[in-house]
Predict the 3D structure of the following.
Amino acid sequence: MHPVLEQRRYLIPFRATLLSQIFTDVLVIGGGVAGYRAAIAASEHSEVIVALKGGIKHSNTFWAQGGIAAVVDGADSFDAHIQDTLSAGGDLCDPDVVRRTVEAGPGCIDELIGWGMPFDHTNGDALSLGREGGHTRSRILHADGDATGRALMGTLDAHVRSLDRVRVFEQCFVLDLITVDGSSPRCVGAVTHHPKYGLQVIWARAVILATGGCGQVYRESTNPSSATGDGVAMAYRAGAELADMAFVQFHPTTLYVAGAARSLITEAVRGEGAHLIDRDGVRFMPEYHEMAELAPRDVVSRAILNQLAKSDATHVYLDCRHLGSGRFAERFPHIAQVLSGFEIDPGVDPIPVHPSAHYMVGGVRTDSAGRTNVAGLYACGEATCTGLHGANRLASNSLLEGLVFGRAAGEACAEMSADGTPAPVKVVSDIPLSDRLELDLDDVRSSLRSVMWRHVGIRRDGNRLAEVSESIDFWARYTLDKIFDERAGWEAQNMLLVGALIARAAQWRAESRGTHYREDQPEPRDAFHCHEVWRRGAPEPVTVPVSKQPPEAAA
């Protein structure tokens, strides 16, 4: 058993009854598309608090460029969207979950339009639809060209703040979930920290985790700095089941400028006909897949790495010159603005790109209503594993997932109302003072991100994965035994835990499937045609078979 995976139950020593206390019916942790949609649904039956780690700009949703995949065109069909999702998912999708999600898409779009979502339109009244990798139809709805996430969060934020039964707490960092033991554990709230108010306990009859991804565990990432996997870490400590943690999606095209932060170049650019070329100007994707640049993301990412190895280069190029400067700026105004800061004119210059960590496919295991195995604890969005994405997420299904499962979790948690808001319980986390040296947190964080990128990234190897686990265990011995009183320390502890969980799952899954590619096991294996479910205290996962039956049509 790895020490990092059996760390103490809570991150800080506290006696909860001595801290300031707040009471609510439902606590939503996270304010991206899933968290906000959950809060809206829960407000129909309960008083709700939404705890935001920062503000809406700190969510992955805000930075989403591509759009929302939904069947709104008569030339499209539910069956086509379902098949595209299943094909991308490496034979690990839950077919019924896929169908329910896809069929809910048009209703989600109508709802957003009713709340004022400014989707782009063609010259007429029709919604403008783009196409991205893995899709056989144009079905991606977008707003302001390449700023769909920003428009979506603006729409949801305005709606949430208009609701009398919802309070939004910004800059509210959630350290840990509080559970009480009975015949089975129950989640009754969380410990939070605010720069002004300090440590607080929020008691709730239901808690909904919507904390987003963990891209900051990797050196190269499209995610904002707040994406440190806090929700997955705290759920694991609380006894929640995690599933499919080996599957992390890497986006093939992020802007590569030495010394600059990575900026996403949306897949919709390739949907508009852009080609990937190497440094000699040769288009290479047709050699790797029949869909070329519109192949699933795992295929494109590995193809880029192969080309880089052949040419000993650091990046390839995205050739958009056929669009011209004006058309590119009209369709992708925010990307054009970023490129202009580096004196890159996409109508004249190919864009230097390289893959980066983008989306956590695995996560907290839930049912179709967002329930976890811990009573009172629900989850939705990127922090979860619902069976929708399988081994590889189809582009632009994530915002749809957040809308569908956020609503489901917000509605389902009404079932906890019979228990009422829990009375305060005495929660004690007695942590002895560490007798080990303290490692430099910045060094630990940097080292973790580097080793995860090199050896738990797009290409993996069993022996290297074992070495990564050993390295993380070493850093954990000198970091997880410490008591921190600020966000950077708590984030570093969460990142170590999440990194260890991903590495362990990747080592266990001795095959290649979807986003998970093992150079020493390059083919999928029937023995691993399953979801693997991890739980604190268990050295091996429980495996759950995956149905190969076609999804049932809605009645």
Notes: The radius of gyration is 22 Å. The mean pLDDT is 91. The first strand starts at residue 20 and ends at 29. The chain is about 30% helix and 20% strand.
